[in-house]
Design goal:
Blueprint: H1 2-28, H2 39-43, E1 48-57, E2 60-61, E3 66-73, E4 78-85, E5 90-100, E6 105-112, E7 115-122, E8 127-134, E9 137-145
Antiparallel strand pairs: 1-2, 1-3, 1-9, 3-4, 4-5, 5-6, 6-7, 8-9
Length: about 150
């Protein structure tokens, strides 16, 4: 019986120590756990290369005119979009982006005709859509990671 009491006491002591460490260690660690960035913003899983999988301007499909349209989100907060036509001509644009982890939004900022323009896109399952009115029609670009 003495052996069981000692074992029970050890298990109880270990459990109490674990609870104490989990509850109070953040208070003594030099930083508040609530102020730490969430893992998603630290690891930046949204950074990478996205391929345009659909490009519609009104009812016209623009994608067949291009060999590739790739938007790259760099880890430093910059982006680059590169569109290569089937004829070989390449167009390139760049700017900055940020990610709102709370709302799942990518926020793009780029200079266009001398003014800073901002567009937001909801990122879900590695895809996002950007819409813009252009000459009376809506341009809809859908991008997918690795697609």
């Amino acid at each position: 019986m003495v052996f069981n009491k000692k074992l029970t006491l050890r298990i109880l002591s270990a459990a109490l120590l674990s609870v104490f460490l989990l509850c109070f260690l953040p208070l003594f660690g030099g930083c508040a756990a609530g102020e730490l960035s969430d893992l998603r913003s630290v690891s930046k899983p949204y950074a990478g290369e996205y391929r345009c999988v659909s490009a519609m301007w009104g009812k016209k499909d623009l994608l067949p005119q291009y060999r590739s349209v790739v938007l790259t989100l760099e880890e430093d907060g910059t982006f680059c979009i590169e569109a290569t036509e089937k004829k070989g001509k390449t167009r390139r644009g760049e700017g900055q982006y940020s990610y709102d982890a709370e709302n799942g939004l990518l926020i793009f900022t780029a200079k266009f005709f001398g003014k800073n323009r901002t567009k937001t896109a909801f990122l879900e399952n590695g895809t996002f859509v950007i819409e813009q009115k252009f000459v009376g029609k809506t341009l809809v670009l859908k991008f997918g990671m690795g697609g």
